[in-house]
């Protein structure tokens, strides 16, 4: 598949300024002029429903005290990329280092960049997730699109296309540094189960829960941040480097027999991001949504069922990011988008 125009940031320059929701709520945009022309009139039923859903999500975000969707937050993304660094070949490590922006000393420092810069690249919002109708499965042709129906605009499409961009970094208007940072971030995103959650609740963003009956939040944030923060406090002395090292040790010891399977991709001519999304969609049903309703109190039972999944998905994300980069920058590599 040829690289679409959204590889390039420059193709969006000069377009009418657009106003987007601050997260994945709708994935739709309105020009400033259309916003200015809004009047208080009767809305069609479909638009009224969308407006009510948007208001509900905004209310949840206010109650939770945080933006609705940034997978793994900085801690999780840092760990994914830190793990990936340790599995890079010398050739791939040198190539990655050469592409880092001047402000970064290592890949892990760049892996939250795609969240930090969402306002700068508003069209990238739908590339952070791939929600499904709630059937615990992901199908590219059905599920990889944004709210406007534009195909390939989901996290799987993002991984495929920025992989292809790095394979053809000499293409005009493609910045390989931007491509690397998007790719690294999206591989982290796709391994957070609720980034392949249900469209009806925007991946758990509209499900209000009570974390240990002390914090009112939403289910998506629990997976992005709360589980990791509690694990760090309870088991890792609030030290992210310790948690990262423990996960890395598990990869080489407890999960050693699984690690080869994680990185395996049946062909060298495409990515296996579809498989990662299918895994997350299934885990969202089996673990993330299991037993959760509006207003649920999530405590030890939920935490101890979710934590092993969080740790393993971070490990898988790191191993698989390294495998993709090793194939991109390996000698005679033929990896391309599916």
Automatic annotation (TrEMBL):
CDD domains: S1-P1_nuclease. GO terms for molecular function: metal ion binding; RNA endonuclease activity; single-stranded DNA endodeoxyribonuclease activity. InterPro entries: PLipase_C/P1_nuclease_dom_sf, S1/P1nuclease. Pfam families: S1-P1_nuclease. It catalyses: Endonucleolytic cleavage to 5'-phosphomononucleotide and 5'-phosphooligonucleotide end-products. One of its GO terms (biological process) is DNA catabolic process. Its EC number is 3.1.30.1. PANTHER family: ASPERGILLUS NUCLEASE S1 (PTHR33146:SF13), ENDONUCLEASE 4 (PTHR33146). Belongs to the nuclease type I family. This is Aspergillus nuclease S1. It comes from Urochloa decumbens. The lineage of its organism: Eukaryota, Viridiplantae, Streptophyta, Embryophyta, Tracheophyta.
């Amino acid at each position: 598949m040829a690289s679409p125009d959204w590889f390039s940031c420059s193709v969006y320059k000069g377009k009418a300024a657009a106003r987007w929701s601050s997260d994945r709520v709708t994935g739709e945009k309105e020009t400033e002029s259309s916003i200015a022309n809004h009047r208080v009139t009767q809305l069609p039923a479909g638009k009224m429903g969308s407006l009510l859903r948007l208001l509900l999500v905004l209310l949840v975000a206010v109650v939770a005290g945080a933006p609705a969707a940034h997978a793994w937050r900085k801690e999780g993304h840092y760990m994914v990329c830190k793990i990936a660094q340790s599995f890079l070949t010398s050739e791939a490590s040198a190539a990655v280092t050469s592409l880092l922006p001047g402000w970064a000393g290592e890949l892990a420092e760049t892996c939250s960049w795609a969240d930090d810069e969402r306002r700068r690249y508003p069209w990238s919002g739908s590339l952070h997730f791939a929600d499904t109708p709630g059937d615990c499965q992901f199908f590219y042709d059905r599920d990889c699109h944004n709210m406007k129906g534009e195909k390939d605009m989901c996290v799987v499409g993002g991984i495929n296309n920025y992989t292809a961009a790095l394979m053809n970094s000499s293409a005009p208007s493609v910045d390989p540094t931007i491509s690397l940072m998007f790719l690294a971030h999206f591989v982290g995103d796709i391994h957070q189960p609720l980034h392949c959650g249900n469209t009806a609740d925007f991946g758990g963003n509209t499900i209000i829960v009570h974390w240990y009956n002390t914090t009112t939040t939403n289910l998506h944030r629990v997976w992005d941040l709360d589980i990791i923060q509690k694990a760090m406090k309870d088991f890792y002395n609030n030290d992210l480097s310790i948690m990262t090292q423990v996960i890395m040790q598990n990869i080489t010891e407890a999960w050693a027999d699984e690690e080869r399977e994680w990185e395996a991709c049946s062909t060298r001519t495409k990515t296996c991001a579809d498989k990662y999304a299918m895994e997350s969609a299934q885990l969202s049903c089996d673990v993330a949504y299991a037993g959760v309703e509006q207003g649920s109190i999530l405590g030890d039972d939920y935490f101890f069922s979710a934590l092993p999944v969080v740790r393993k998905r971070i490990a898988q994300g790191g191993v698989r990011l390294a495998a993709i980069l090793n194939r991109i920058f390996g000698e005679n590599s033929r990896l391309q988008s599916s």
